[in-house]
Amino acid sequence: MASLEIRAARRHFVTPEGGRVAALDGIDLTVGANEFVTLLGPSGCGKTTLLRAISGFEALDSGSIRLDGTDLAALPPFKRPVNTVFQSYALFSHMSVARNVGYALEVRGVDRKAREAAVESALAKVGLTGMGGRRPNQLSGGQRQRVALARSIVAEPRLLLLDEPLSALDRNLRQQMQIELKTLQSRLGIAFVFVTHDQEEALTMSDRIVVMRAGRIEQIGTPREIYRHPRTRFVAEFIGETNLFHATVDRIEGAQALARTAQGVEMLLPATGLRRGQAVTAVLRPADFSLADQGIAGRVTRAVYLGSDLQLYVQPDAGGEEIRVTARDGANAPATGAAVHLSYAPEAAHVLEAA
Amino acid sequence: MCWRLRKLMTRQNLVLTTLLAPVTLFLGVFFLLPLVIIGLFSILSPGLYGGVEWSFYHWNYGRIFGWADGIDEIFEPIYLQILLRSLGFAAMTVVLSLLLCYPVAFWVSRLSPKTRLFFLFLVTLPFFSSLVVRLYAWLLILKPSGLLNSALMGIGVISQPLEILYTPAAVVLGMVYIMVPFMFLPLYSAVDNLDRALIEASMDLGANRIQTFFKVILPQTLPGIMGGAVIVFIPSVGNFIVPDLLGGARGLMIGNLVEQQFLSARNWPFGAALSMIIMSVVLLVLLSSLGRAKKAGV
Ligand SMILES: Nc1ncnc2c1ncn2[C@@H]1O[C@H](COP(=O)(O)OP(=O)(O)OP(=O)(O)O)[C@@H](O)[C@H]1O
Ligand SMILES: [Mg+2]
């Protein structure tokens, strides 16, 4: 059951200098009725513009946005069954918390009794029972965030848009809210479109991640697909730490291909879809490597302590870029300057479709 | 330690007192003292050629409230009427300048920074020339053979000149004209500080434009509205230049009475009593409306 369907959405802006920015450059996206979809991408790639187009504050140049089959183009923001959690919270400072939360019902003319009950239950859902009498400026940042959340779900929208709702919170609170948001989403049974440029946040919360770049969608997939099978170098480098190897396929033996980098480092890759002589880019994550007796020979140039793990920077003896490796910290962990061999399971290597 | 802290505190207090002393002295002498003098004069008997006689006299206030001199006991609330009229004129000035400035403030806040600055400069431009000269210009515009009437008759809207000059309308018009900058600046500041995200949040939650205006925009800019209203209301109640030049007999305001008592009638105590009444009435009106605004949740 499809909930939100965006087809060939385009929107451009004229910058004050007279230039033309394509904020949305042909976006196609479908969001399921109970799906948690995250828009992820660098600053200025059009995430906010896409949300504003869905909520109705930004009109499209061309393309369509449909919600449960209804075209939204003709509906002004206040008639769309879509609510937004704003990054700045945008709470009404002249109203009590309860009136803030009940606002969507108040403007719809819901009577006082029903409104109070709904406000009560929305506040309970976000863990703010009994705070209704306060003013927004008497709350902490995390509590304000919850009020904004309660306010946006009280009218039971079919789709909730969240534009970097957690970016103003400190790390602990952010992680706690991530879990709560995810739980709330599955309990409410509505679709969330969530914007962040924190890749870790995207990986932990989403059913699917939409990686955007300069107004286009670079890749859509589950967190595992995006992390394990990035389609492009941009996605590979944007999500998680990445080692990229540019190599040429030497020969193919059964399920494995032997490739060689320009510096002569030999690599085993999954053979699927590869031809002899083909130039490929392979992705290996730092955790894919282990220290072994044989494999890629190199020397540790730097060891960074990360708590229970160490991040090693290994310069291959054959030359080429440093390889980042995650190793367990311990008594026999290699020190800077140590000679090591790196091995990996060939199936862990992922070959990019496009360079 | 405690002792040293206390010593430090007293020294700080000493410094503070020393620094604030000139200001306190200035306010005491030039603000409070005249007030005390006026208060005192208002309960003394008038001197024969101005000034006061140092004997208690309560009919200054009695006269204002309708017992003309307390001699023939005829109730004639002429002064109360003029006071009420002044309050009415001032209220109208507040409302009209508010209606004029509020939309303009929104418009200006959306201009490009450069145009905006130019507009704000234009608003303050009248301060560069004399008030009396500017009001004389209005006299020339409004008089029967003036600019407005000749223009209107020229294009055939009217056949007889409108009688605007020397009516209450002329007084209110003149006061609005004077007060517009004072209303505009606090309003503009409130509107300019209004968070656009609040408007979007309201619409996002299902409020249409009218609901958004009354439930979010108006309450969020209410401090600016109240500020502008107070700044316009106070000097308007006691204004005497505008009614003097544009008002005629029907446009007479309480400020004119005060002026007359001091300058031509030479009844200083009565003028002082009128001043005290103006002050207390203005204070009452302000306190009650501020109280109401507070209750409305600003
Ligand atoms: N009102 C506007 N006028 C002109 N250009 C705009 C406007 N709004 C957005 N843009 C441009 O459109 C592009 C996309 O902006 P958008 O706000 O959608 O980015 P974003 O992905 O949300 O970035 P961030 O992560 O920094 O919030 C940017 O290049 C931005 O400069
Ligand atoms: Mg953004």
From TrEMBL, chain A:
Domain ABC transporter: 6-239
Keyword Translocase: yes
Top-level taxon of the source organism: Bacteria
Pfam entry (one): ABC_tran
Keyword check for Nucleotide-binding: yes
Catalytic activity: ATP + H2O + polyamine-[polyamine-binding protein]Side 1 = ADP + phosphate + polyamineSide 2 + [polyamine-binding protein]Side 1
A GO BP annotation: putrescine transport
Matches recorded under Gene3D superfamilies: 2.40.50.100, P-loop containing nucleotide triphosphate hydrolases
Enzyme class, broadest EC rank: translocase
UniProt GO cellular component terms: ATP-binding cassette (ABC) transporter complex
Gene Ontology MF, one: ABC-type polyamine transporter activity
Enzyme Commission number(s): 7.6.2.11
Keywords: ATP-binding, Cell membrane, Membrane, Nucleotide-binding, Translocase, Transport
Assembly and binders: The complex is composed of two ATP-binding proteins (PotA), two transmembrane proteins (PotB and PotC) and a solute-binding protein (PotD).
General function of this protein: Part of the ABC transporter complex PotABCD involved in spermidine/putrescine import. Responsible for energy coupling to the transport system.
Full protein name: Spermidine/putrescine import ATP-binding protein PotA
Annotated organism of origin: Paracoccus litorisediminis
Gene name of the record: potA
